[in-house]
Amino acid sequence: MLKFPIYLDYSATTPVDPRVADKMIPYLCEKFGNPASRSHAYGWEADAAVEVARVEVAALINADAKDIVWTSGATESNNLAIKGAANFYSGKGKHLITVSTEHKAVLDTMRELERQGFEVSYLAPADNGLISVEQFKQALRPDTIVASVMAVNNEIGVIQPIAELGEICRDKGIVFHVDAAQATGKMPLDMAALKVDLMSLCAHKTYGPKGIGALYVRRKPRIRLEAQIHGGGHERGLRSGTLATHQIVGMGEAFRLAREEMASENLRIGALRDRLLKGVTEIEETYVNGDLVHRVPHNLNVSFNFVEGESLIMAIKDVAVSSGSACTSASLEPSYVLRALGRSDELAHSSIRFTLGRFTTEEEIDYTVKLLHAKIAKLRELSPLWEMHQEGVDLDTVQWAAH
Amino acid sequence: MFAPVYFDHNATTPLDPAVLEAMLPYLGTRFGNASSRHDYGRAARRAIDEARSRVAAAVGAHPTEVIFTSGGSEANNLFLRGAAACLRPGLLAISAVEHPSVREPARQIVAAAQGAWRVREIKVDGEGRIDQEDYQATIAEQPRLVSVMLANNETGALHDVEALAAAARRNGAAFHSDAVQALGKVAIDFRKLNAAGVNALTLSAHKINGPKGAAALVVDKRVELQAQISGGGQERGLRSGTENVAAIVGFGLACELTCARLAAGAEKAAALRSRLEQGLLGLGARVFAAGADRLPNTSYFAVPDIEGETLVGKLDRAGFAVASGSACASAAIEPSHVMAAMGVAPEVARGAVRVSFGAGNTSEQVSEFLAALGETVFQLRRLVALAG
Question: Is the pTM higher than 0.90?
Answer without folding.
Answer: yes
